[in-house]
Amino acid sequence: MESPVDRHRLQNPELALGSLSGLVIIDEIQLVPELFGILRVLADRPGQPARFLVLGSASPHIIKRISETLAGRIEFVDLSGFNLAEISPEERDRLWLRGGFPRSFLAGSEADSLAWREGFIRTFLERDIPQLGITIPATAMRRFWTMLSHLHGQTWNASDLGRSMGLSDKTVRHYLDILTGTYMVRQLQPWHENLKKRQIKSPKIYLRDTGLLHSLLNIPGMEELWAHPRLGASWEGFCLEQVVAALNTQEVYFWATQGGAELDLLFFSGGRRFGVEFKFNEAPKVTKSMLSALADLSLAHLWVVYPGAVRYAVHEKITMLPLAEIAGLPAEILK
Description:
By secondary structure, this protein is an alpha/beta fold. It folds into two domains: 4-69, no CATH class; 84-334, no CATH class. The protein contains 15 helices and eleven strands. Strands 6-7-8-9-11-10 form a six-stranded mixed sheet. The radius of gyration is 22 Å and the shape is globular. The model has no long low-confidence stretch (mean pLDDT 90).
């Protein structure tokens, strides 16, 4: 739908699409949201001669009317960039540094990758956001996005961020929802347990692609990343996205109490609870926080994902798991 020629061909969309059969792919459909009503009519035809695969770079919550228009007729599939299962083991650090966007990851040099990401950020702010009908100055959104990169992995505080930008809580919340709805940011929601302990109730904020995170933090290469104060947070966000991809679910949470106990990732499977911690340490140890999460949340098992190469158990319910082995997590859950 970015092509003027293709959009012209769909001036009478029901006629143009109604004559097709088999698999019909429509890309960047968020630019023409009125097509969803036509797709509903076509999906209800007897025999369904065509199936439609619609692609876009914004969530259903951003595209107006999609949920109501196609209710009961559509399946949503979230696609991320490259993940560890799609690359060779020796390319892990490149994926971490450059992120999962194909043209960034496959660039011929670090400079080319960085240039592509900078161009993507500019195009996203100056063209893609306005095309969704959102009128926010690109400079204001860039500043907000950059400030978020410094808060990567931290609990959301609209008041603090709003004061820093001279904006209201409502405005910065709106900015955050836009970046979340366009898959740039993950709001990891807190899990509330019925405990006497006071629990954190605000989401944690992660930039979903570490390549874009590093661009916004002005980190051009691995040498600069290793020396950066946000190294641990970058690693945590990278591992989080890889685990979510391996589990093939978006139903994930974190848990934290005012007393300091915390679990980086909580998910459910088969009526049981599981936890994942992320530690950028070659020899992580069992902490009081891990034991607290294990007991308070009644976890069936807790994995500690770390950058080492050896898998080993440190407790009957706690396993140190190399990042390279997270593809086996779904099988672990079934044991």
